[in-house]
């Protein structure tokens, strides 16, 4: 199969979907991104790399950072992590407060904002500087020592972060945060604000396709079982309220972010990153979903 020709063809097919969605603007600094961009990158376990469109343009990874943060913290915390956060889909918006009260401050899963804040809190307990730990890991795996958070986006998130602050205070009141709310938020916002390209993301996510071991650096980050767990949570909770539609149309573990990026994993084969900033009503990249749907349909590659 000629994967390079295939992704270029898919790119042509999805470009007409421009302007069927909108760039996220609830974080004002995200709204300035040029909307008509599309990147597609693949990294295979046997070391091949493919990219087309704007696959080398850095963008704000936003909630895709939650998948890496989960892996990093699971590695350090093991099963104990699941006392602080659940692993069930939420069926509520990613920043909902309602469910948290019903469930006594234990967020449904690590990919809604409350869950990611709880994971970040655990990461601070283990690493001290959770953001630097994540950044070091991503720099190493993506092969780019200059990867960094976009400080303008981090500041914009902080300035408009009342809801995330409310979630964190709420969890703290239930005893589910060990560190000061401001500290946890600061690490969380910086993680969301990391800029990466599709090529870098696909490279960094490859360990999830390889049962927890990085083919690049040879490091075993997660046990085989933990890699399965992260992929399972991505499949069931990784794309906001559209996890059912993604499982149905794409059939892969996927984590999305409001920057318009999507990281998808084909266990045993490859990792894929797609980016296009215009989002559908549920917060996922319009062109990204169309592209992944076409990719798995045309290759027959999915986990099902
Ligand atoms: N930093 C964003 C927030 O906390 C992440 C949202 C997302 O990508 O889902 O609202």
From TrEMBL:
Gene3D superfamilies: DD-peptidase/beta-lactamase superfamily
Assigned EC number: 3.5.1.2
Any Pfam family: Glutaminase
Keyword set, alphabetical order: Acetylation, Hydrolase
First-level EC class: hydrolase
Gene Ontology annotations of biological process type: glutamate biosynthetic process; L-glutamine catabolic process
Entry's transmembrane regions: none
GO MF: glutaminase activity
Protein residues bound to substrate: 63, 113, 157, 164, 188, 240, 258
Reactions this protein catalyses: L-glutamine + H2O = L-glutamate + NH4(+)
Oligomeric form and interacting partners: Homotetramer.
Family: Belongs to the glutaminase family.
Record-given protein name: Glutaminase
Protein's organism: Chromobacterium vaccinii
């Amino acid at each position: 199969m000629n994967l390079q020709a295939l992704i270029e063809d898919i790119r042509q097919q999805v470009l007409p979907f421009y302007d069927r969605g909108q760039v996220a603007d609830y974080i004002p600094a995200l709204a300035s991104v040029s909307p008509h961009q599309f990147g597609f990158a693949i990294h295979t376990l046997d070391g091949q790399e493919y990219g087309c469109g704007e696959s080398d343009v850095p963008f704000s990874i936003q909630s895709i950072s939650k998948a890496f943060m989960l892996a990093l913290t699971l590695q350090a915390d093991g099963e104990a992590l699941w006392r602080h956060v659940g692993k069930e889909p939420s069926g509520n918006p990613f920043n909902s407060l309602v469910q948290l009260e019903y469930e006594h401050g234990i967020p449904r899963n690590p990919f809604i904002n409350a869950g990611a804040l709880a994971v970040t809190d655990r990461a601070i307990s283990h690493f001290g500087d959770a953001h630097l730990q994540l950044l070091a890991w991503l720099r190493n795996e993506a092969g780019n020592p200059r990867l960094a958070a976009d400080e303008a986006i981090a500041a914009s998130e902080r300035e408009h972060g009342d809801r995330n602050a409310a979630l964190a205070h709420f969890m703290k009141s239930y005893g589910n945060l060990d560190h000061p709310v401001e500290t946890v938020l600061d690490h969380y916002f910086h993680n969301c604000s990391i800029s990466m390209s599709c090529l870098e993301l696909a490279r960094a996510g490859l360990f999830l396709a390889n049962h927890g071991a990085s083919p690049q650096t040879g490091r075993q980050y997660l046990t085989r079982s933990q890699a399965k767990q992260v992929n399972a949570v991505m499949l069931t909770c990784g794309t906001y309220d559209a996890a059912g539609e993604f499982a149905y149309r794409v059939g892969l573990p996927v984590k999305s972010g409001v920057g318009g990026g999507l990281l998808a994993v084909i266990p045993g084969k490859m990792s894929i990153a797609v980016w296009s900033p215009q989002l559908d009503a549920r917060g996922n990249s319009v062109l990204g979903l169309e592209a992944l749907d076409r990719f798995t349909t045309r290759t027959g590659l999915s986990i099902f």
